[in-house]
Design goal:
Elements: H1 2-12, E1 16-28, E2 31-41, E3 48-59, E4 65-70
Antiparallel strand pairs: 1-2, 2-3, 3-4
Length: 71
């Protein structure tokens, strides 16, 4: 629920972003997709994680995001 989402973003907010690079953007109709690389360091552990991701957003007629899917 909302409390769990808040806790997730509070934890993520403590991570040190080492790299964020948008590789490509795609758009068509009411959808936008972004491919990007994210590298971050977990606080207190020094563990570095690197991931390449693709996110797809679907936008309604009012300009609001109605769906978000990450791969």
């Amino acid at each position: 629920g909302k409390a769990g989402a808040l806790q997730f973003f509070e934890i993520i907010g403590t991570f040190k972003i080492r790299e964020f690079q948008v590789l490509s953007l795609l758009a068509g109709g009411n959808q936008v997709a972004a491919e990007f690389v994210l590298e971050f360091e977990a606080p207190g552990t020094g563990v570095v994680c690197r991931d390449e991701e693709m996110h797809l957003w679907t936008i309604d007629d009012c300009g609001l995001t109605i769906a978000d899917c990450g791969i």
